[in-house]
From TrEMBL:
This is Coenzyme A biosynthesis bifunctional protein CoaBC. The keyword Thylakoid does not apply. Pfam families: DFP, Flavoprotein. Residues 1-167 form the Flavoprotein domain. Residues 195-422 are annotated as: Phosphopantothenate--cysteine ligase. Residues 1-194 are annotated as: Phosphopantothenoylcysteine decarboxylase. CTP binds at D283, K293, P311, D312, I313, L314, F334, K352, K356. In the N-terminal section; belongs to the HFCD (homo-oligomeric flavin containing Cys decarboxylase) superfamily. In the C-terminal section; belongs to the PPC synthetase family. It catalyses: (R)-4'-phosphopantothenate + L-cysteine + CTP = N-[(R)-4-phosphopantothenoyl]-L-cysteine + CMP + diphosphate + H(+); N-[(R)-4-phosphopantothenoyl]-L-cysteine + H(+) = (R)-4'-phosphopantetheine + CO2.
Length: 422
């Protein structure tokens, strides 16, 4: 996604550096446009180092590219953080005394302004009127937090935490996609298509009582299947362990282990137009299965459980297609990732996309209180053909619509040759 981050002249400008880091670590291209006053707080070199892109500050720079118009036209999201009382007033009046003002006048994408100022400025009737006017024009203005301000002051006007701003921005983009872009459901884009969707977790038996499993609820896979059905597709739903019911209207195949899921995919995917691997597949299983319940030892020693790898179903489906077998021409994988000191969630996701060889990978960050079992989620869709990543956030049914809309775009109109046949 192409983002313009506008920074105006407030002390909170230093916190926007943290916001910029969140955006770039999520894999987005960010052009920072600071006002001249903002550079008194954070210098141009900092913005260029964190964004990895040149920073323009003057309307008359890069005139040959019509830069003052191009930035706004090409942006898919504009965030102004912090937005001072002066910048809100200028935006409300439609003034463009600097490059950022020109961006705001030419942008047709979602715009989020994040005020930060002293309480008296925020509550002044002029600022209140300017905010109301901007909101009436469709610009989102985030209410500031209340707390410690510059000096000894406290009260409303505090710059919100970068995590809150980024979550609001992603939600704004998702809302924009839902309202401004036709979804697959609205145009019946999958009519006549056959789609296989896997969902839920797999369970690997240790003995007749115990198993190794994961926290997947199956909610996202069900949402994808329901969105595909609503778009006119014939859906085969392969479900593992789930806390929700399978989608009505789909052909349902129930499985438990990764091996059973592997067999079901290899049996039902050939001849389908698309395979969506939303299931949370176990990477390992017990190397030995105990025919009876494993008992506690009398001496108090711990049992030793040896694990072995399970089949890589996503990779094998792609490999089977490459070998000439009749697998779907469009295969979508899911990457439930956790970042660490070596790489971000999206960096791990990009590596997985390249390694698996599928057309699209839906990446999200997981954990005990993230994604698994929850009704809401945030994902980023990465594409093998190099197109810009697409973010989606909201409840899982809304994200399912966004995923199926991208799937329809990959498939194209019915009758187009699949990639495996080209």
């Amino acid at each position: 996604m192409r983002i313009v981050l506008g920074v105006t002249g407030g002390i909170a400008a230093y916190k926007s550096a943290l916001l910029l880091r969140l955006m770039t670590e999520a894999g987005h291209q960010v052009d920072v446009v600071p006002t001249p006053a903002a550079l008194n707080f954070v210098g141009q070199a900092t913005w260029e180092a964190l964004s990895g892109r040149p920073v323009r500050t003057d309307t008359f720079e890069a005139v040959e590219t019509v830069n003052h118009v191009r930035l706004g036209r090409e942006a898919e999201l504009v965030v102004v953080a912090p937005a001072t009382a002066d910048s809100l007033a200028r935006a409300a009046a439609g003034l463009a005394p600097d490059l950022l003002g020109n961006v705001l006048l030419t942008a047709t994408c979602p715009v989020l302004m994040v005020p930060a100022m002293h309480t008296e400025m925020w509550t002044h009737p002029a600022t209140v009127a300017n905010v109301d006017l901007l909101r009436s024009r469709g610009i989102s203005v985030l209410d500031p937090d209340s707390g410690r301000l510059t000096g000894q002051d406290t009260g409303p006007g505090r710059f919100p935490e970068p995590d809150r701003i980024w979550a609001e921005a992603q939600s704004l983009v998702a809302d924009g996609l839902r309202t401004s872009r036709p979804t697959a459901q609205q145009n019946g884009a999958l009519a006549g298509r056959a789609v296989v969707v896997t969902a839920g977790g797999t369970r690997e038996a240790l003995d007749p009582v115990r198993y190794l499993g994961n926290r997947s609820s199956g909610k996202q896979g069900v949402a994808v299947a329901e969105a595909a059905l609503a778009a006119g597709a014939r859906v085969t739903f392969i479900g593992g362990a789930m806390s929700v019911e399978p989608p009505a209207g789909a052909e349902v195949v129930r499985v438990e282990s990764t091996q059973e899921l592997h067999e079901a995919v290899m049996a039902h995917a050939p001849g389908a137009d698309a395979l969506v691997m939303a299931a949370a597949v176990a990477d390992f299983r017990p190397a030995e299965y105990a025919d009876s319940k494993i008992k506690k030892s009398e001496d108090g020693s711990n049992p030793v459980i040896r694990l072995e790898r399970t089949p890589d179903i996503l990779a094998e489906a792609v490999q089977a297609r490459a070998a000439g077998q009749p697998m779907p021409g469009t295969i979508i994988g899911f990457g439930a990732e956790t970042g660490d000191a070596t790489a971000s969630v999206l960096e791990f996701g990009a590596a997985k996309l390249a390694r698996k060889g599928c057309e699209m990978l839906v990446v999200n960050q997981v954990g005990r209180d993230k994604v698994f079992g929850q009704d809401t989620t945030e994902v980023t869709m990465l594409f093998a053909d190099g197109r810009e990543p697409v973010a989606a956030a909201g409840d899982k049914s809304e994200v399912g619509v966004a995923i199926v809309t991208e799937l329809a775009g990959l498939l194209g109109p019915l009758g187009r040759l699949d990639r495996m046949d080209q």
